[in-house]
Fold each of these.
Amino acid sequence: MTNAVIRSSGLWTPPESVSNDELVACYNNWVERWNRDNADAIASGQTEPKAPSSSGFIEKASGIKSRYTIDKAGVLDIDRMRPQVRRRADDEISVMAEAGLAAAREALERAGRDPADVDGVICSATTMQRTYPCIAIEIQHALGIDGFGYDMSVACSSGTFGLINAINAIETGQARSILLVTPEITTPQLNFRDRDSHFIFGDVAVAFLIERADLAEGGWSILGSRMKTVYSNNIRSNFGFMNACENPEPAFEDRYFVQEGRKVFKEVCPMVAELILDQLQSMQLAANDMKRLWLHQANINMNLMIARKVFDREFSEDEAPVILDEFANTAGAGSLVAFHRHSDGFAPGEKGLLCSFGAGYSIGSVIVEKRAA
Ligand code: COA
């Protein structure tokens, strides 16, 4: 057992949500127009007509029913099909920091803590709005924390890797208390004109307050953690500040998220189940010692497969809760949001496991135990 404790969590969701039907209606209107505009090229065999999307496919293939977005109007405007954000002045808070700050404030409030109790802010997310100054330092500044902040990024494992960094900071005496903030503003990464992926992501921000055990009442003890990365090209974004210097300069469309979904599914599920089982065994724990698995939320069928392999039996939804129906894939935030929404009903001593998986490939796993209040 470590001397770090997850004391509380907080969540920010954008006010607007887009249903599958709304998303598909927009996509299909755009496809109809595109096919009409390209009718001659299609008739002469120069190009293939684009096929419509369907809500039925999306829900069956992924389990997603809706997603939150920072700008519904921009996403559903067929002349735009990407969120629109107001450009902020240099002295205004950034979109990511604002989202993260709201989640951080809720985490502090739920723990009855003040920013003066916190020594550091780690902002860990799949993408950063800018390279510097750090989003974490913006949040630190907005809260008035006298300490340090830094940004880090490990794709879909950003949340768990950030959590493990926060735990390490407590363990090594760097800090008494750390705010881990994972603002995942993912919809700008998405090509809403790509049938294979237009439904995948949603926006959210989640925050965890991690404290030294002797200073914290209640919360969750950290029993152990694991990180693993294995190189794969199957989930990729080529977006970055080098794009403007590349020769030839890539088209804007080439900078979005792309994936080989089937390969990801086939390769990642066994790796995750194996890592969890190995971690449990190394800690002399059994799968049935875990009351709940808070898994990464990319695809319902992946989660069912992984949970079945781990438990080696049928299991209830309470044992592997799902939030992606409402939120879609929120990248590094998924397992943390599942924890935030579904961490009730634990008696002191009962255990659970948070596990993220995704691009990299990356897997992050943390085993926790409920403490007495
Ligand atoms: N609407 C309707 N049909 C669609 C569609 C859409 N939006 N997108 C694809 N299809 C069709 C395909 O054309 C294909 O048709 P065909 O069989 O006639 O060729 C069929 O549906 C299956 O397509 P496929 O891409 O193989 O779907 P899938 O079952 O693999 O599901 C994902 C797609 C993305 C939901 C799934 O692969 C997935 O979630 N993978 C893991 C993703 C993941 O975890 N990524 C990590 C990112 S962090």
Amino acid sequence: MSKHLNKLSALVLGTSLAATMASAGGELEKVMKARGLSEQDVIRAAKTYLPTGGRDEFLVFSSGGQSGQIIVYGVPSMKILKYIAVFTPEPWQGYGFDEESKKVLRAGNIRGREINWGDTHHPALSETKGAYDGKWLAIQDKANPRVAIIDLTDFETKQIVVNPVLKSDHGGAFFTPNSDYIIESCQYAAPFDNNYHPIEEYKETYRGGATMWKFNNKTGKISEKDSFTIEFPPYMQDLTDAGKEMSDGWAFTNSFNSEMYTGGIEVGMPPFEAGCSRNDTDFLHVYNWKKLAKLAEKKENVMIINGHRVIPMDVAVKNNALFLIPESKSPHGVDVNPTGQYIVVCGKLDTTASVYDWKKIKKLIDKKEYVGRDPYGIPILDMKKTLHGQVQLGLGPLHNQFSNVKGEIYTSLYVDSQVVKWNYLDLKVLDRVNVHYNVGHLNAMEGKSIDPQGKYAISLNKLAIDRFNPVGPLHPQNHQLIDISGKKMDLLYDLPIPLGEPHQVVSIRASKLHPHVRYPMGTNTRTGKIHKGKTLAGQERIERKGNNVSVYATMVRSHINPERITVNKGDNVTIYLTNLERAQDETHGFTVDHYDVHTSLEPGETGTIKFVADIEGVFPYYCTEFCSALHLEMMGYFMVKDPTKKYVSAQKLKMKKMSTAELKAEYDKTVAVNAATDEVIQSVVKFLKENHYEKHPVVKGLVVDALDQYGQIKGEKAKSDKALKAGDIEKAILFENMIWQYMVKTADVGIRAKDALVRLVATKQSTAAAAGERAFGEGGCGGCHVIGKVSSGPDLTGVLQRHENGEKWVKDFIMNPDSKFKEPYVESMINYFNLRMPNQHMNETETKNIVEYLKWVDDNANLF
Ligand code: CUK
Ligand code: CUA
């Protein structure tokens, strides 16, 4: 075992670390035994493990299914990083609880009705020349056909548009290769208008279609008036993919009810599932969206339904822009390969995948060679003549993804619970791996772009069954990570998804994303514009016009200004809040208790909450994000008076008052503490300046934040002096306390800046020195020794020089302190600190490493 293990750890961890592991007394072996892990398990763990502070290579955006949200996680660690609120209110982010986000969410109302959920299926990343550009994310809602746009600079939803003619969708959202359009294709056929039409008139009045949403890749906005829909027969369209490269300008949409069956189980008809699957083939819709977009510009080519342009089928047919190709029974999924030549379609009720060749399709289209027309007059191309070939894959093939290897494709098998790897050029099956269980979509890194990355695939399994600790009858979904870099696929990791049924994920190299950490001060994040309610320090105010009360408030560690708001019952209250922070991750949240409002304010953001003060009483408001040590103090009172009531004032309690002398003493003490604190700050500032903090952006950001806090002191001091002069010592003490608060905040950030700067300007630590620092910390040495300072034990800078043969002396002392207690120097230290150096039972390696760390400390002694 041990021999194995050394070989294994050498493999996994690299030779030098493996040696460390072996000398650490077979720790790895012990853990494996205790947890019952195999060697394969450990290798898989190492392939997905992300040490603290580490970064993933890829980010994945997963639809949140019925949660109406998007889930963001990293690959290969599978750590969940964010839920993006899209179609559903989300309280933490204030989505649907503040005015800015309500405006986005409510744009998704349908025919005046509030819709508060969505069934998200297919997220899509914006593309430039067919490659993901990392700018925008789109997702569709299947239940209430809508499309939303998420900005990838802040991962917030910025727009929701409602499909004006479709009543459900499935084939969306899909970007065209330069993000000119987002395609949203129908699912269940229904009348385009909003009227009742009997089911007996299905063939005449029910329609499918594909909506082409005009998108601006610069502004990230869909233009509704520039969008249009292509009318399709009522065949129950399904998924779509846009052509690329040689097939650019075209799009492909499959369908599953060429029978045009309309159900009727309740009147003795066979159910939909039987009627929709009678024919041996269904239809792939092939259409030239570029040509159709041109046609849509002319009035005579479109009909206007619900204020929206629709191109009728006959116009599309007349202009050679719409064709059908038979595809195997109940098709699902249509995927265009990276070169745009091959279009792969699977069939839920078939065992084969069909590979169509665009060159063959185009040839038939150009020659106008059709095998017939469907009942709506759409030309049908010969299936055999358009096929490159078909491959037997297994039961229930659904979706496909491409890798960086030419011809390599991965397909999910729903019924077989497998992912199969095959080659679509020579039509050979290469490998298959079992997944748990019933996979729907799958994703390979950037696997639907022009530039697939390979490396990993994710299997989105519909059932988890026995994979996780049981949590009741409703199980999480299971996303399984598969290593696809080798010849054989290897299943690495299970990620339970407890938030709806995610249908599809898209992945992108993390290096392509550049989200910002703060907003320009006063930003309305949903519009990107400066908010009309932007309020800076000193501009806080309460304005009253009739029964409209507007509050302009600010939030900064650790207070809300104003701290008291009094209104009359029935007043319309609007509170604008600006987060004045510039520091990274200093979010404040705001709520008024009992009023069902909440907003989350990221640094620089201005948000609005609005409500009618319809209940009388006293309602605390507070910051809902634990933002600093004084977070609980970040509060105020919202008071609602009933103007029709007379309030009897309570008798005031007589409390003992402090004498003037006592107050003066307290004032002096507070001022002295402030002076001492300021000295610490000044020493940190001196250090930062001497070491040119301004050269390091991260440190500079921290210093700017610290100086920001420090800058507040002058104003507070003036107020304190004024109060003192006026004889109000009590007030002066409060202002001095405020000064201390600012000082603590300054020192807090300043010391963080100093630590960061030390790391940047110090010489690089060797592996041993870094391990030594860890051992120093974990071994509890820091409890008594603070580097650069005398604390409860002596300062250790220069300790190696203090003794003859210093390295050995220190080593011996750590491992066996008692042996040296009689030495005069040690004895004097024991007397001085009234403490003996304890034996921390460090082993040989740890002790050696600590000595290396102390050497590093000496090399950088000027920094401590
Ligand atoms: S669909 Cu779910 S497994 Cu909605 Cu993309 Cu195929
Ligand atoms: Cu701001 Cu808590």
